[in-house]
Amino acid sequence: MNPDQTLDALLATARPIAPGTERTEFGFETRLLARLREERSSSWAWLAVRLSPIFAAAVLAAAAWCHSYTGIEADPTYALDAVQSGGTSALTAWLPEADR
Amino acid sequence: MSDVSAPADASLVAATLDGDDDAFAELVRRHKRRVFGTASRFARDPHQLDDICQDVFVRAFRHLAKFRGEAPFEHWLARITVSACYDFLRKERRVREHVSLETHAFDVRDASADATLDADRARELIEFAISKLAPDERLIITLAEIEERPMREIATLTGWSESNVKIRAFRARKSLKEILRLSHES
Q1: A18 to A28, B49, B63, B116, B142: CA distances (angstroms)
Q2: What CA–CA distance (Å, rounded) separates A85 from B158?
Q3: What number is the ipTM of this complex?
């Protein structure tokens, strides 16, 4: 018998043997869904970690902006200095034409 | 007799995409037997088999939005299964390379003459020979010779052209014969 026939004979003998998978199939859906849920939650955690520097930068920028804005508004000497240094003309120069 | 009240696969896919995990579990229950059947041709170890099948359904879950329903869900899943099996074979190849021919020397002289050749022995012999093949050859031999799938179907499953599948199948048979010859000589 030539090698082709030998090979065909071997393949034909092995062909109908279907491996039993029942034991591995048992509880498969449960394991799979648990894995999917775990991956889903870990992907959210991963995203949160990746985005945390952006959030931190945004918070710092907002804090700095608030600090500088309230700094100008809360300084009571600002107007006084302007009057004392430049007189009322300095202030009226800031006013719109109609309010003078 | 099929259960007429059971939702179609397309409905279960839509429900899964809406966040219904139970719908996906039902899809898995329906199709796992075929996935296990194909994967078990490549992995005998229960842990490896479980890993491959989980990989198949995880891929399916992640890419479910790409399923358009033009072909049956099982055909779409079969392509994912073959792709996952091929990836498994490529990974496993590195691990198996250290196994020498001498440790698995079989006597193939009487394989044809001995009509009473034990089926388990034949399977053991052919599994050994197939395990020595390159991943693409192993995939082709399993699909074409063991599962006896038509070339056109294999082309669809693998994404290779039909002529490419035929060439690979021819080369795989040649390699298989050479492995059996070397095993016999050793």
Answers
A1: 19, 14, 30, 20, 12
A2: 85
A3: 0.71
Query: Is the Cβ–Cβ distance between B48 and A44 less than 8 Å?
Result: no
**SS3 (DSSP) at B96:** helix
Confidence of residue A47 (pLDDT cuts 50, 70, 90): confident
| CATH architecture under which domain B100-186 falls | Orthogonal Bundle (1.10)
State percent of chain B over pLDDT 70: 83
Instruction: Among B28, B113, B176, select the one facing A7 at the smallest CB separation.
Output: B176
Task: List for chain A the helix, strand, coil content (%; round to 5).
Answer: 85, 0, 15
Nearest alpha-carbon partner for B54 in A22, A24, A18: A24
pLDDT tens-place string over residues B117-144: 567 777 788 888 888 899 999 999 999 9
Domain spans, chain A:
27-99
Q: Mutating which of A13, A35, A37 best tests the B interface, going by the most B Cβ atoms within 10 A?
A: A13
B24 lies within 8 A of chain A by CB: yes
Please give the CATH topology (third level) of the domain spanning B1-98: Rna Polymerase Sigma Factor; Chain: A (1.10.1740)
Task: Measure the N-to-C terminal CA separation of chain B; round to a whole number of Å.
Answer: 54
Interval B76-90: pLDDT, tens: 999 999 999 999 999
Interface subset of A 40-99, CB within 8 angstroms of B: none
Is a pLDDT exceeding 50 seen at residue B113? no
